[in-house]
Amino acid sequence: MRALFARVSPGLILVCALVQTPGVAVVHAGGSSEAQPRNEARAQGSDPKRAKQLYETGVSELVARDFPAAYKALADSYRLQPALETLFQLGVLANAQSKRLEAYDIMRRYAADKGHGATAQGAIAYPHQVEVQRILSSSPEDSGELKITGPVGAFVYVDERVAGVLPLSLPLLLKGGSHVITGEYGGRRYDASVDALSGRTGEVRFDAGGLAPTVSQRAETSVLITLSAQEIPSDQRPVLRSTLTEFVKRSGLAATQAHAALLQHPDLTSCLSQLACKLQLAKRTSQEHILAARVSLQGPPTAGQWRVSVAWVNVAVGAVAAQVDQGCTICTEEQASVLLEETAKRVLQVGLNRATGRLQLRSSPAGASVLEGQQELGKTPLDVALYTGLHQLVLQQAGTRPRHAAVVLESGKTQTLELDLLPTSANNQKGR
């Protein structure tokens, strides 16, 4: 079990959910420190004039590629007056420093605030939209989400870099690993050390009342997202991946994209078009379900004839629980993304709720292959999860006659079978 460990100071309540399985997180309480004024103007309160001067200095230093000086000026300006324009420049700076995930995180929140919910597709016009879309057009590295709540106006830092001011429009995106989250308000700083897990969502809640730190946590259903879109132009694929990922997260599930999982298991890259290979990747990365999507274009891209196929797979069962195929004619890229999300929604509603039972099957002699149709479930003795309902099974073993069996599984219940296999006759053996 991997949990989110946190060291928090008084005045902080940390609610963590970056877990793979239910467990207990550990909290170590420590002392808070007075927030040291970063500059004289900050100690005196808001100073719009000084904030503007620092902003202009920061932009000039950014153009000159003096990144440390640019960050200091822009961060000081933001602390004096947390303007969205300054947040945007901090995103540009992060991108220039090759801090891709930080840039992506800032720009998505800037777009949400400035464009009232606009995403990388951005149907709503807002300042710097072209630059924001450019940064959001490439998929970020594998990350976890962290929701931050607390007093309005509190500043939030990640590893001592300013991330925004509360309330944040969207959760922070954090690279997997350890990070220090800082909340600054009321002249004091409160720190928490968190371990972010890819594809998981956690929450940090700052409490202005100085309550003792408490920790709670919840497990999320984990989903591996695979997308086959070889016929789709490469610049459109990130939008489709983002559509699936955001949908899964909005559904209250933890999402991990296949390309991120393959970074740890590159040996499976060449076989990911096969269900068995997807199942292997899901098991290696502790995923409970697979959302497998295929998007194709029939004819030239300008024709707009899209085809979408989405399947939901229960990893424990190892079989498709639900699948929906849909198409649209004369569709734009945005309409195709909507179709993809609608299809995924239909599949999830059926697949996630499809009940399972358990089959325990023994045979004498042992070692018989258990088949259901063309699928081999394993060899006896067999203990396997299957979808509820009627299952027609065939047991096969060299030197014995095939044995047919029918079993009905009920939700949450285990069905036990013990079957004897009869040897083949001598005549049958000669005839082979």
Write the layout of secondary structure elements.
Elements: E1 6-8, E2 12-15, E3 27-29, E4 33-34, H1 40-44, H2 48-63, H3 67-80, H4 84-96, H5 100-114, H6 129-136, E5 143-149, E6 155-158, E7 161-165, E8 172-175, E9 177-185, E10 188-196, E11 201-206, E12 215-216, E13 222-228, H7 237-250, E14 254-257, H8 258-262, H9 275-284, E15 289-297, E16 306-314, E17 319-328, H10 333-351, E18 356-364, E19 369-372, E20 375-379, E21 382-387, E22 389-396, E23 403-409, E24 414-420, H11 426-431
Parallel strand pairs: 1-3, 2-12, 5-11, 13-14, 13-15, 18-24
Antiparallel strand pairs: 1-10, 2-11, 4-10, 5-8, 6-7, 6-9, 9-10, 15-16, 16-17, 18-21, 19-20, 19-22, 22-23
Helix pairs in contact: 2-3, 3-4, 4-5, 5-6, 7-10
Commentary on this structure:
The protein is an alpha+beta fold and 432 residues long. It folds into three domains: 6-216, Serine Threonine Protein Phosphatase 5, Tetratricopeptide repeat; 222-351, Rossmann fold, CATH 3.40.50.10610; 356-431, Immunoglobulin-like (Sandwich), CATH 2.60.40.1120. The protein is built from eleven helices and 24 strands. It has helices at residues 40-44, 48-63, 67-80, 84-96, 100-114, 129-136, 237-250, 258-262, 275-284, 333-351, 426-431; strands at 6-8, 12-15, 27-29, 33-34, 143-149, 155-158, 161-165, 172-175, 177-185, 188-196, 201-206, 215-216, 222-228, 254-257, 289-297, 306-314, 319-328, 356-364, 369-372, 375-379, 382-387, 389-396, 403-409, 414-420. Strands 1, 3, 4, 6, 7, 9 and 10 form a seven-stranded mixed β-sheet that branches. The chain has a five-stranded mixed β-sheet with strand order 8-5-11-2-12. Strand 15 and strand 16 (306-314) form a beta hairpin. Helix 4 (84-96) packs antiparallel against helix 5. It is elongated and about 95 Å long. It starts with 5 loop residues before the first strand and ends with a helix.
